[in-house]
Amino acid sequence: MNRPYDVIIVGAGMVGATIACGLARSDLKIAIIDAVPAKPYEPDAVPGIRVSAISLASENVLTNVGAWQFLKETRLCPYRHLAVNELPAEHGLAAKLPDISSWARTQFSAQEIGQSHLGYIIENDLIQWSLQQVLLTHSNVSLLCPKNIVAMDLQSDTKTITLETGEVLESALVIGADGAQSQVRQAANIGQYREQYTQSALVATVSYQGAQQDITWQSFTEHGPLAFLPLAESGGQQYASLVWYDKTDAIRELMAMELPALRRLIQQKYPPELPRLNRIEARGSFPLFKSHAHHYAKAGVVLAGDAAHTINPLAGQGVNLGFMDAAVLVDILLKAQLNGERIADLTVLRRFEKKRRLSNQSMMGLMDVFYHGFGNKHLPVRVARNLGLGFAQRLGFAKHKVMAYATGLSGDLPRLAKPV
Ligand SMILES: Cc1cc2nc3c(=O)[nH]c(=O)nc-3n(C[C@H](O)[C@H](O)[C@H](O)COP(=O)(O)OP(=O)(O)OC[C@H]3O[C@@H](n4cnc5c(N)ncnc54)[C@H](O)[C@@H]3O)c2cc1C
Predict the structure, then answer these.
(1) CATH no. for residue 131?
(2) In angstroms, what is the span from residue 164 Cα to ligand 1's centroid?
(3) What whole-number percentage of the chain has pLDDT above 90?
(4) Which of 58, 230, 244, 373 is most exposed by smallest CB count within 10 Å?
(5) How many domains does the chain have?
(6) CA distance 382 to 261
(7) Residue 38 CA: which ligand 1 atom is closest?
């Protein structure tokens, strides 16, 4: 027998689970499906390798949907400063320039905007786990996880999703929050623009010596940034996540190295701010691409998070855009329901696309400015961008604008992204 729902969400990752938590406070009957169970929180464990820099606006979203009360009992690392600079060139004419990398360094601090922190670095697994803890408290939500989907029919007015167990779920509205390879997007015949970057990223969880850091920084090389993201202490040990962007072949070589040799190379190539590393605990590599669905909405189907858009992760904004998608979508669906509209109607779902597409596109464009801007090896461009970074540090009003943008607190915020 088919099981009817008001909304089916495919993907209980960070974005899908946030949407479900936001909608759960209504009387909508919601099913949310994921093929992979969330990893439970283990105190004192080595942090997971996938982490995110969560903006203040995203923290508001997680608080407003109830996840922060679980999350704050786990491992969170606040960062109070954020710095960007460019490392001196190693080859060519640029290598003969005086080293102005410490002058040409832009550093943002939370206290400059009257905040205690600029954001948190949190393991993706913990965010997902805490959101799913909230879902378990709502009787109108069925968290179907782990469950494999074997068929989706998204063409008729009543959409059906068939699980491996033989259960058939039906609803007028399916939300695709199933990540970059979205099956919902494909089943709904929504095409996408996709472009692979020539860079890839190596991500490593490392343990380090000394006190817990409260700064996250990126030092640009001609091949892309070397980034440091501090993580919370666990089991009396300090951890950080390092990201090394480089050409795909170079990343492949780093992945093939023995871990002690890689640790020594990181210590040598990273700027001196990098604390003394004990060990590389884990590493992984990711191809980098950007993609944007041609539409976010069709009658009865809507895409959010990475299912709709992926961006170059160099400024760590991907899931922050996803949280904002979630907050806006929840607002629009709940308002429509209150006004007696059919929430699956294309006119309702298009309101979401109208609100989010331009913001997501703008962030995508901004990431490309960084990517191409710092990748340019011409001497005058290099000098100009170093001067730009140096003056940016000294121009108060410009800094405030950038910080408001980075914390996600600028513009017209949806209800869930506003401070509690
Ligand atoms: C190297 C790297 C570093 C990054 N760093 C940052 C950062 O610092 N800050 C930041 O904001 N973003 C960062 N991002 C981006 C961020 O990880 C993504 O934007 C975010 O994970 C998207 O969340 P999502 O919930 O939309 O998708 P996902 O995290 O991909 O979740 C999708 C969920 O759907 C499930 N699913 C998929 N298909 C199916 C199916 N057919 N049936 C059932 N379930 C399914 C999956 O199991 C998963 O749980 C980074 C990305 C990369 C590659």
Answers:
(1) 3.50.50.60
(2) 23
(3) 75
(4) 373
(5) 1
(6) 31
(7) 49
